[in-house]
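Renewal narrative, Specific Aim 1. Our central claim is that a sequence can be written position by position from structural information alone. The example that follows is taken directly from our test logs and has not been curated for this report. It begins with the structure tokens describing the chain, in the order in which they were read.
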């Protein structure tokens, strides 16, 4: 369901030292399954050669000679008309000015005029050039025309100065491309809330109780929902993972914080996917000072946390939102019986039963072996699959629910 696969993407490269990073971006788009046509401006060819792009994409890279050469007058029309997305990275101040004013004096700017598809620019230039009123005015013209602009970031510039003007990193541009190409997906206009990771229940300022959840399945669900065009809020406990591009991230730590975030975010949500491993117990007393070794503490009293899905079920009765709820059951024994009991008790539309004692499923690993249980008694076992594939299968069910 990766929205880049099979899409026609024109990557324009202009004259900036960041052109070397464009080769990495071209490679990443190619690896994601995009059909990529690179167009270099004459200035870009001062920094990098077409052969570099041909090597990483396996396709011809276009230069101005192609405008007047073999394919002559049709090259730019073909490139522009067939594109699903035009990305210009790096976009120099000069090319930004030309695009703003419709100037078409090289293959890339002619292609841009012929293209009816969405456009993404990743500006790269010296800080003063970026801040110049002319550049700012040109960017504003393009923004008002619906062009997406990513960055520039702050940091060391080729001039030796530190400031705003660095092209954002290829991985982030790739995330934005993925997000832009998903916008016409079947969940466009739907809000999906995903919870992920484990919660942390404090004992004192330096210690807490937590669990082995890595957050991987929740983050994969968020990415799948984004790929289908949904507006996604990811409520997450602390993890080592990077949030998928385009997600609205809400960081929480304790079960209590997650409860408040879930109730607030699902008040207008179409679906809640509750993949988080919420702590079931928390210390009754939280010490405000670090508990010293000399205190010889030998037990910690615990009390239950609120069951978030039970609270969501209460909210649903009152307001009807979230419209659909998916729960997850982490079990080490009697998988299906325990999962079905949770499906009923928590009033879910689907539960994903997960044997976390298996070495290739559950916490920390990249694969999962789950069984989907429906309220009507249907039992749908899925083969061992990556967490991304499991996420895609769950989101297919969400699409069926929300499209009727
Ligand atoms: N869950 C929740 N609030 C809690 C604990 C769990 O909303 N305080 C949610 C989880 O996010 C998951 C589902 O309930 O979607 C089942 O979680 P699980 O840990 O498998 O079950 P528990 O309800 O905690 O029951 P038990 O620990 O006894 O298995």
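The sequence written for that structure reads:
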């Amino acid at each position: 369901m990766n929205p880049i696969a099979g899409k026609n993407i024109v990557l324009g490269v202009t004259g900036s030292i960041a052109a070397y990073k464009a080769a990495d971006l071209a490679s990443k788009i190619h690896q994601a399954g995009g059909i990529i046509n690179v167009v270099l401006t004459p200035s870009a060819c001062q920094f990098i050669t077409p052969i570099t792009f041909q090597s990483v994409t396996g396709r011809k890279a276009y230069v101005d000679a192609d405008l007047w050469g073999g394919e002559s007058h049709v090259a730019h029309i073909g490139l522009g008309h067939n594109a699903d997305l035009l990305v210009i990275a790096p976009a120099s101040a000069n090319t930004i000015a030309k695009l703003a004013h419709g100037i078409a004096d090289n293959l890339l700017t002619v292609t841009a005029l012929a293209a009816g598809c969405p456009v993404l620019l990743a500006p790269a230039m010296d800080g003063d050039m970026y801040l110049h009123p002319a550049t700012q005015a040109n960017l504003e013209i393009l923004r008002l025309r619906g062009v997406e602009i990513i960055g520039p970031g702050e940091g060391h510039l080729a001039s030796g100065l530190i400031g705003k003007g660095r092209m954002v990193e290829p991985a982030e541009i790739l995330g934005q491309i993925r997000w832009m190409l998903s916008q016409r997906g079947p969940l466009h206009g739907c809000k999906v809330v995903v919870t992920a990771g484990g919660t942390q229940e404090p004992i004192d300022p330096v210690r807490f109780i937590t669990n082995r959840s890595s957050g991987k399945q929740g983050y994969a669900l968020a990415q799948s929902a984004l790929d289908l065009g949904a507006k996604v809020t990811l409520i997450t406990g602390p993890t080592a993972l990077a949030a998928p591009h385009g997600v609205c991230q809400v960081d929480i730590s304790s079960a209590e914080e997650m409860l408040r975030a879930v109730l607030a975010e699902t008040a207008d949500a179409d679906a809640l996917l509750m993949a988080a491993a919420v702590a079931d117990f928390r210390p009754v007393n939280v010490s405000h000072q670090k508990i010293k070794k000399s205190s010889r503490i030998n037990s910690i009293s615990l009390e239950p946390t609120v069951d978030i899905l039970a609270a969501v079920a209460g909210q649903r009765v009152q307001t009807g939102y979230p419209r659909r709820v998916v729960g997850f059951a982490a079990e080490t024994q009697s998988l299906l019986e325990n999962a079905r009991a949770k499906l009923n008790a928590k009033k879910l539309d689907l539960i994903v039963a997960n044997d976390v004692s298996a070495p290739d499923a559950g916490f920390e690993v990249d694969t999962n072996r789950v069984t989907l249980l429906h309220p009507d008694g249907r039992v749908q076992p899925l083969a061992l699959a990556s967490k991304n594939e499991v996420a895609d299968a769950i989101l297919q069910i969400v699409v069926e629910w929300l499209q009727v």
